[in-house]
Fold this protein.
Amino acid sequence: MGMIQALWGYRGFIAGSVQREFQSNYKNSMLGAAWTVIKPLAMIIVYTVVFSQVMQSKLPGLGNEFAYSIYLCAGLLTWNYFSEAVNRGQNVFLENANLFKKVNFPVLSLSVIALANATVNFAIIFSLFIVFLVASGSFPGLVFFAIVPVLLIQVLLAFGLGLTLGILYVFFRDVGQLFGVVLQFWFWLTPVVYPLSILPTWAQQLIAYNPTTSIATAYQTILVNARMPDWYSLWPVTLLAVVLCVLGLRLYQKHASEMVDEL
């Protein structure tokens, strides 16, 4: 509770930092903030035009010509958000070492800022994806709002993992390099660009242990099949997210003062 109160007291600093980073990304750019729309829109167009024709046969039983494009966007956009949030959380203490050596503020707010920046980027591109769903007649209806609890689970997982890795990275610099390698394998072990159904049974059972598998599958079930996800399958990853958050906060409590000396 003390950490939450401290973060609330610095909410202006957190909001201002998020706003400054967003503005700095497009400073001295002729099109300015328009790039926040152009880049994700180009990505969605590529997925739609190219993959809806080349890969639609990979989703048998779905007559919608945009089925694979939606499947791909549902997986890739949310995976990119997760990986960006974790990477930002992992690097945030090293990147801001000079700041919290000079200024007295709750260092944990840096992790919140990192997550918030990734969330802003995700909100922009996912909003455009929603527009595409509506325009193509593929919007799933009221079941779409089942995304909210799935997204909250993903946010908790990204924050907890990013905070834990960020603190470990301060003391063990190999952590950042190792996680970069792990993330590459993690992506391909998550059913983002391929459906689980094309894999042999033993591979499906193995990939089911991947915590992001249930999250990606939940998004795809909602957006592609317009059905509620399997809530039961999300309990293990929810528990893992809570454990990582608790672990990260305990590490922060125990080593916050040491981090300044280490940096």
Observations:
- The longest helix spans residues 67-95.
